């Protein structure tokens, strides 16, 4: 629960925090002063990675104190105020389902992209609930699920030699207060804005657009993101 | 057929050319020097609108000669080198099916967004073929279907007081030469680029993202578009 606290005060948990997307979000948010709990199935490995992330975030923050701690997913889900789910789609439903109890009453930010690969490249996987975010919402009836952080290149997030990022975070969801919080959190990433981009039922295309960005990356040897114009 | 000609040489037909999106694309492309055939079911109404578009394009082009002619969809489809389909989704399948013969051998650019409205706002309509562009491809087996021009605000396209637009055109398709042509055509819109954004099977989310831009527009009182970063 955020209890009306400013976003700077919130402890942010990252489920799947040892993957590139989770690590990248963690290091940038930690460098911006956000307290971070990195979660993984393997708590020991996660503590080691959390220490590395903390070291890199401290350096990026010019030596300022940062807070990154590792732990098991279930403990992170219980201790954090707001939780980002950054797991591969293959494990998404099971991991989310197991965490329903500790995630109750919290904002859960889903950044998962249901994506498969074949000889023609990447393609969108159909999700019975419509999207990964809607699947999370169905499995977490007592949480407030928001979709965000799909279009951010993990490579650029982790490349701290570039202090500023370029792009926007499209945020989808149905609860205005939760959206405001997640947009403010996105705005803590240097150079980025959190942009309201519609209801949760329109999450699918936001998630799947990441697949088109994969094609952009291959064609242009880029780490593409999205900027919303005229806002 | 484009026969290897430069994009500037191509006569561009716009099916549904009397709607806001078709008219907006037509006036901007005409002002950039593209020869345009505006198509509609009602050829007489279309001739009147073509004359208005020509007048506005001439003014935007600083008095340079422009070429905009109106006609029936079937005649436009037959006479143009490349055809943009800018019709409401409700009429999409029928209109495209009827034009299969005159469109054979041509590049067909589909910019249709399958979108419905209810009390919660806009939502994506499921298309049996996956997307409007894939539907067009299924109905036009002898044409080369490309998806593009979804994220452009008709209001901004028609607002010639702003000489430059801000945003990119995401282009999806399976034929490299056709993609190159459509990207080059998109690049004729002032301030815009045509960006390769993957295969036709990944058209759905490009189309449907327009629905999220509708939400952005309502929230921010904007005419939102998309810019692809790091390209």
UniProtKB/TrEMBL annotation, chains A, B:
Keywords: Oxidoreductase. Residues 12-114 form the Pyrroline-5-carboxylate reductase catalytic N-terminal domain. One of its GO terms (molecular function) is oxidoreductase activity, acting on NAD(P)H. Coiled coil: none annotated. GO terms for cellular component: plasma membrane. It comes from the Bacteria. It holds the Pfam family F420_oxidored. The keyword Transmembrane helix does not apply. One of its GO terms (biological process) is NADPH regeneration. PANTHER family: DUDULIN-RELATED (PTHR14239), F420-DEPENDENT NADP REDUCTASE (PTHR14239:SF0). This is Pyrroline-5-carboxylate reductase catalytic N-terminal domain-containing protein.
